[in-house]
């Protein structure tokens, strides 16, 4: 199938090892933008001066914060918000090791009682790191001991040039420099802070890095324990989403690797309206979306390539049968060269923002179906986070952790089979 031909096409002229990115001159070390105070005027575009200090600042990643750090403590030690002009490429990982980026080194201060469970990201990463079945944080992986492994990497900020492939530069700059209007921020649902800017850029940066990783490998799975912010439009955000990481990474993939068929599988319980609108006139991107029909978004719902709205309380059997019937058809009809999996877990029964009734086991089977489909077809897959709002958050964190653990298991098994 066409997907198999992707790697040779991309490798052409690059010594058999490399993609378009590597074949061309690497982009210069990027300038960074100093943080702007709320009172400073918003510039029309980022400046481009490049000092040696800027080079080293751009090269340095923010230090990882303790997962359980309080918002107040994090606010006092927030790393500087730095937005590189152009993107960088990730270092490769052993075959069979799941690389998962994280953005929780930015801890966003939220007012007491805020309904967004920001700590679930750090909790998911911590659960993966502590899982004895995974040689987490750079374990041997299938390339070494053969067992499943997760390598956790801090996500760098998304590059300005990448973010603005999708988003209007003026919108990105207004957000970065705290010049959004009050109604705009109310639609987003978060109070502005430098940490929010840092986290938002890292959240998209992780998905872009994961995309580069699987595209450079030509196969396999990489993840972002963040992202999946599918309610972000070109010029506005809503529903806790500011930048649309999947749309950005898909657009970077089309620009850098010349892809002409990308499949977005959005299984969050809410429709991915931002992604749908961004790609509504782009035949290169197929958006497939299963969601709760009576869930948000109501007024801002858009049209995906395939929309599958489900009635309240849909359970495992019906959901999984539907997915199983669609996945082969999507692969056959669209022959994707890259798959994005928005793996929201808010279809879980009891989710406070969802209306479906899947079990943890049902979501596990869902994950297996998606990973198995991509691996068997030899199509690279990027998995990102999505919604998950049980109260307390433990059930959501378990389900989020399952998403990445299952990816690590499937990837390791697939790599062993490749090497056999
Ligand atoms: Zn959701």
From TrEMBL:
Residues 27-46 have a biased composition (Pro residues). Pfam families: Hist_deacetyl. Keywords: Hydrolase. GO terms for biological process: epigenetic regulation of gene expression. InterPro entries: HDAC_classIV, HDACs, His_deacetylse_dom, His_deacetylse_dom_sf, Ureohydrolase_dom_sf. Residues 27-50 are annotated as: Disordered. Residues 154-400 form the Histone deacetylase domain. One of its GO terms (molecular function) is histone deacetylase activity. This is Histone deacetylase domain-containing protein.
């Amino acid at each position: 199938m066409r997907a198999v031909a992707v790697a040779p096409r991309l490798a052409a002229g690059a010594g058999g090892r490399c993609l378009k990115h590597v074949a061309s001159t690497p982009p210069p070390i990027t300038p960074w933008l100093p943080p702007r105070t709320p009172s400073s005027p918003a510039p029309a575009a980022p400046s481009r001066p490049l000092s040696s200090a800027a080079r080293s600042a751009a090269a340095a990643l923010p230090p990882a914060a303790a997962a359980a750090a309080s918002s107040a403590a994090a606010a006092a030690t927030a790393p500087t918000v730095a937005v590189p002009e152009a993107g960088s490429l990730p270092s490769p990982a052993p075959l069979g090791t799941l690389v998962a980026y994280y953005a929780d080194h930015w801890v966003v201060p939220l007012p007491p009682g805020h309904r967004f469970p920001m700590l679930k990201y750090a909790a998911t990463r911590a659960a993966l790191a502590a899982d004895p079945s995974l040689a987490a944080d750079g374990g041997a992986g299938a390339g070494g001991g053969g067992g499943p492994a997760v390598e956790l990497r801090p996500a760098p900020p998304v590059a300005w040039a990448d973010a603005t492939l999708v988003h209007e530069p003026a919108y990105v700059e207004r957000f970065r420099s705290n010049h959004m209007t009050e109604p705009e921020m109310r639609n987003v649902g978060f109070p502005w802070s430098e940490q929010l800017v840092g986290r938002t850029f890292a959240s998209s940066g992780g998905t872009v890095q994961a995309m580069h990783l699987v595209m450079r490998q030509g196969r396999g799975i990489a993840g972002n324990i963040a992202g999946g912010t599918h309610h972000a439009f070109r010029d506005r955000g809503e529903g806790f989403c500011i930048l649309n990481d999947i749309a950005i990474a898909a657009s970077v993939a089309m620009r850098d690797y010349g892809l002409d068929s990308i499949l977005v599988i959005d299984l969050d319980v809410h429709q991915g309206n931002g992604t749908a609108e961004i790609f509504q006139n782009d035949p290169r991107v197929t958006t497939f979306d299963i969601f709760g029909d009576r869930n948000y978004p109501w007024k801002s719902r858009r049209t995906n390539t395939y929309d599958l709205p489900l009635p309240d309380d849909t359970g495992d059997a019906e959901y999984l049968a539907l997915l199983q019937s669609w996945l082969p058809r999507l692969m056959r009809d669209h022959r994707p060269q890259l798959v994005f999996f928005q793996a929201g877990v808010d279809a879980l029964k009891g989710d406070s923002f969802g209306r479906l009734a899947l079990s943890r086991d049902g979501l596990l089977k869902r994950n297996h179906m998606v990973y198995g489909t991509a691996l068997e077809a030899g199509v690279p897959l990027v998995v990102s986070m999505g919604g998950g709002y049980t109260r307390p958050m433990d059930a959501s964190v378990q389900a989020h952790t399952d998403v990445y653990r299952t990816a690590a298991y499937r990837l390791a098994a697939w790599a062993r089979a490749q090497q056999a």
